[in-house]
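Input record (one chain):
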Amino acid sequence: MQKRQLGATGPVVSAIGLGCMGMSNAYGPADRDESIATIHTALDAGVTLLDTGDFYGQGHNEMLIAEALKSRRDEVQLSVKFGGMRDADGAFLGFDTRPVAVANSLAYSLQRLGTDHVDVYRPARLDPNVPIEDTIGAIAEQIDKGRVRHIGLSEVGADTIRRAHAVHPIADLQIEYGLLERGVEREILQVTRELGISITAYGVLSRGLISSTPLTLDAGDWRGHAPRFQGDNLARNAALVEKLGEIAASKGVTVAQLAIAWVAARGEDVVPLVGTTKRARLNEAIGAVGVTFTEQELQEIEAVAPLGAAAGTRYAAAQMAMLDSER
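The corresponding structure, as predicted from the sequence alone:
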């Protein structure tokens, strides 16, 4: 497994990371044993970066990871998002990143994860009621106490990145980045590179749009409400993926491997996060490590999937309005 460093001062991690959200029913039911086996397969293959959030399944995801790791905690870097508030039905209630919430959320995450520290700790979204300086300062205090190693950000814009980094070095920005979502290239990527901050890219397979198999949505799968999965948008995006699949086939890789490798090829400062609950899908993703492109292949991909090619926004309107990265 190849390695990459997160930012100028962050940890050295595997060249791809495992996103664990789907193991807690975000995309419909997930099999607990298969999820744990998938984490074990990732570790055995040298994947060291595991990404989670304390609100994924209202703590379920962290407890699942703790069960999977047990005596293998020292093999991984745990990236944890906090701040998302949910009720017992799973509905989102907003975000809370006050300093007191930082201390409280971290305490519960450490307990659920069965560890004494988190490798990268990050607010899941910008809290409109709390200056980012206050949130970052509170996480920095937890670094001084040994409970956090590095600070990350998630889905914030250029101005917020600069303000946060001025308080404490930021290791990485977690943001959606892939062949069907390239908004980060408009401004944010230039700022992170200027400041020496890496990108951990989620949504590299556009939440299942980029796949060789037909997409089916189970009950409880939130993608059913996402614009890119609805009506004409879905048909247009499927046609786009079909064209990408033709390029992949000529290269001897799957369309998913093409998409993962394309993100990884954007620079040494970009680490794709692959979200999956199944070992077969994980092994397919790991097969993308080391895939390279000729200039002609990159031009062919660009012709099919330029900036803004996807039909529909990546989230519903209410969620888009909460994204500082989209302002």
